[in-house]
Amino acid sequence: MAHGRLVVLEGPEGAGKTTQLRLLAERLSARGETVIGVREPGGTILGDEIRTILLHSALDIVPRAEALLFMASRAQLVEREIRPALDAGDTVLLDRFFLATYAYQGVGRGLPPNDLRAANAIATNGLVPHLTILLTLPAEVGLARAAERGGHDRMERAELAFHERVARAYEEFATPEWQRAHPECGPIVLVDATGSEAAVFDRVMAAIDERWPASSLS
Ligand code: T5A
After folding, report:
1. Whose CA is nearest to atom 29 of ligand 1?
2. Domain with 155 in it: what CATH number?
3. In a domain, 119, yes or no
4. In the structure, which protein residues have their CB atom closer than 6 angstroms to any atom of ligand 1?
5. What string of H, E and C letters represents the secondary structure of the chain?
6. What is the pLDDT of residue 171?
7. For residue 217, is it within any domain?
8. Which of 1, 31, 114, 145 could be disulfide-bonded to 14 (CB atoms 3.0-4.6 Å)?
9. How many domains does the chain have?
């Protein structure tokens, strides 16, 4: 049985997942953990090819094909990178996982949730995150941050209403009712992503230390 930890960072565009993942990796490494940071889509050679198609191509991709491409990237990442790292006792920090599929392809694109759930079960082969940190902030604030960073990818170019649906979906995912109905997602904690990077990181660390008191990490 896997004895490492899988911590997922989730949230709408520009919420600060990548930034917080980097800060978290530095802090946990300094505490003596072996930490691996990966992102979806991507994280493997196949996944990076799929990422290019999904985010940086001008291809016509219908929602069902889009969902399955995300799933294919996920399946490869879980089997080739995440499972082996967890088996070795490492901490895996993952930038997005299947909550993103439920939010973007389910609520955003309108695909049936049960179909996504079934496809996801194939992709993850039953892997459940130990903790998901869900960064929350209004869609327009995240999009403005992403715009400031520059370069809109295919998903970011979707209309504001799409991103607002996605942001609202993430809020619903944090409710106890939704989590009870979705045990495949594991525990989800909400972290306010407004304010400075340092302020958000303090909240992220508080969530980590609450889930795993610091003494058990060192
Ligand atoms: N997707 C993904 C699906 O549709 N289905 C799926 O199943 C999966 C897995 C991935 C896209 O794919 C979609 C979702 C996405 O659209 P991506 O490039 O990985 O694309 O994009 P995101 O995951 O959305 O990542 P972003 O880079 O857009 O946002 P992050 O990682 O949340 O934010 P970050 O840290 O890069 O920060 C964005 C900018 O804001 C600044 C940073 O310096 C950076 O410039 N920033 C802050 N500014 C002010 N205050 C703070 N607290 C800040 N924190 C960061």
Report:
1. 14
2. 3.40.50.300
3. yes
4. 11, 13-19, 39-41, 55, 70, 96, 100-101, 104-105, 145-146, 148-149, 153, 155, 196-197, 200
5. CCCCEEEEEECCCCCCHHHHHHHHHHHHHHCCCCEEEEECCCCCHHHHHHHHHHHHCCCCCCHHHHHHHHHHHHHHHHHHHHHHHHHCCCEEEEECCHHHHHHHHHHHCCCCHHHHHHHHHHHHCCCCCCEEEEEECCHHHHHHHHHHHCCCCCCCCCCHHHHHHHHHHHHHHCCHHHHHHCHHHCCEEEEECCCCHHHHHHHHHHHHHHHCCHHHCC
6. 86
7. no
8. 145
9. 1
